[in-house]
Design a protein that fits this description.
By secondary structure, the chain is mainly α. The protein is built from 14 helices and no strands.
């Protein structure tokens, strides 16, 4: 990769890693489901009026919008609201790589390679270890973020089937799907009064957090990541996703004083090692679009 493209990949990973801290900030001002709705509303508008049609069947736009926008981010935001720290959330969410391989085997009949199975086991052990960490907050919050990883894996399969020619345009249209359902879910589960208070008492931190997760993490992140995937093959770009939990943990430590325990270090090492092992390619075999190994795409957290 050219140095400028390496720098771009690192910047995207840093933006996505720091995004977990920003989410934590936004959750102080918004109920989680409402915050997720606002995030996607800002990502969709006004961009949807300028990008043109998604150029994929609408069923895939809706499928990814539901799995990624409503289920994954809804569960992630609620899980963090329930007490899972930002740094650990960035790590636990990487369980999506395990779920992606499992769903690919079940739904796409893609038989995982031996090295992918080994990587899955290592990464899964790291996720379990993270759940045993005394700093992991409530068990409910941890399980919700694990569930968010599963929904992310499901959305990865839908995105793979959709194969959008323009990832940025596709994500803008995907962002149209979640706002109304999330807002409607927020009313009975979080209450009219909580939603109205949040909207009536908007402040700089809440608005800034919403703009960051919508424009920096979603629109810029996907535009840049999609550009890199169009310029290089997936196995060249995907390893940079391993930097996301590192930046996430580092940002939580710097800005929130989140404590790193011995279990956190061990869990981080296992998750990153497991994902890295799963990305290993067979030697001495030309890689084509048809023969590329399944690499879980990254979605902005």
């Amino acid at each position: 990769m050219k140095p400028v493209h390496v720098a771009l990949a690192v910047v995207v990973a840093a933006v996505w890693g720091a995004n977990f801290v920003v989410i934590d900030v936004g959750l102080r001002d918004f109920p989680p489901l409402l915050f997720s709705a606002v995030r996607f509303l800002l990502a969709a508008l006004p961009a949807v009026f300028f990008v043109g049609p998604p150029r994929v069947p609408w069923r895939w736009v809706i499928a990814v919008g539901v799995a990624l926008g409503i289920m994954k981010f809804g569960m992630l935001f609620i899980g963090m609201h329930e007490g899972l720290p930002a740094g650990l959330a960035s790590l636990v969410l990487q369980g999506q790589a395990v779920f992606t391989v499992v769903f690919a085997a079940v739904l796409l009949k893609e038989r995982p390679r031996r090295v992918q199975i080994v990587g899955m086991v290592i990464a899964a052990a790291g996720i379990v270890l993270a759940g045993l960490d005394s700093t992991a907050g409530t068990l409910g919050g941890f399980l919700l973020v694990v569930g968010a990883g599963a929904c992310w894996g499901l959305s990865n399969i839908a995105m793979r089937r959709a194969s959008p020619p323009d990832t940025f345009r596709f994500m803008v249209w995907v962002s149209v799907v979640p706002p109304v359902p999330l807002a409607l879910l927020s009313i009975p589960f979080e209450g009219w009064d909580a939603d109205l208070r949040a909207l009536q008492h908007l402040n700089v931190s809440g608005v800034g957090a919403a703009l960051y997760v919508a424009w920096a993490a979603t629109l810029f992140g996907f535009a840049a990541w999609g550009y890199l995937l169009r310029t290089y093959d997936a196995p060249t770009v995907a390893p940079f996703s391993l930097l996301v939990p590192i930046f996430g943990l580092a940002s939580a430590w710097v800005f929130q004083g989140e404590r790193m325990t011995a279990l956190t270090y061990c869990a981080t090492a296992l998750v990153i090692a497991g994902i890295a092992v799963g990305m290993l390619r067979r030697p001495k075999k030309p890689v084509t679009r048809e023969s590329e190994p399944m690499v879980a795409p990254v979605a902005a957290p």
